[in-house]
Protein: diphosphoinositol-polyphosphate diphosphatase
Organism: Zingiber officinale
Amino acid sequence: MGRVMIPSESPPPHQELPPIHRDEDDGGTGDVGYLTISTTCPHASCLNRSAAATECCGGALVPPLNFAVVDAGVFRSGFPETANFGFLHTLKLRSIVYLCPEPYPEENLEFLESNSITLFQFGIDGRKEPFIDIPGDKIIDALKVILDAKNHPLLIHCKRGKHRTGCVVGCLRKLQKWCLPSVFDEYQRFAAAKARVSDLRFMELFDTSNREL
């Protein structure tokens, strides 16, 4: 079974993830490489059909809400529903970083188990502003998992893929040396009218020199 660990115009130019922690047995060259995301069923009879037309295993492959590629082997989204499992299967995920405090649904755990996906859970309260302090320690712990290539391909998600996911990705972008306006622009593309001043301030003040990273 998947092991449970408790402890969003054109995007800015692509930048590589900062140095990531690798073991010697992490594969030949240790390169993560880029994934080709299939929008069609992996079954041979469906390989040449579009996502809209594909009907296999109960229907078309549907990405989760607010799904996007963050970087090589790293994705983000809202909470995956059962209708999204076929799409997630094509990503060949090794790990999921879950940013909500609520227990993971049983059907999602079954999907993880059947696909040997590890679940890392960092329960961050999602209440609206006025927002109590964002738990920086949990953000750092989540980033440690994301920066470790052994966990890739990896999906980061909260409920809607906006605020908690946006904060984690924003802090990752700062580690990638993105300028603050680009960090904020990406966050606001997913949060839209629901952007939170507390999130923006947290990302602005995030210390990229933290020795734990």
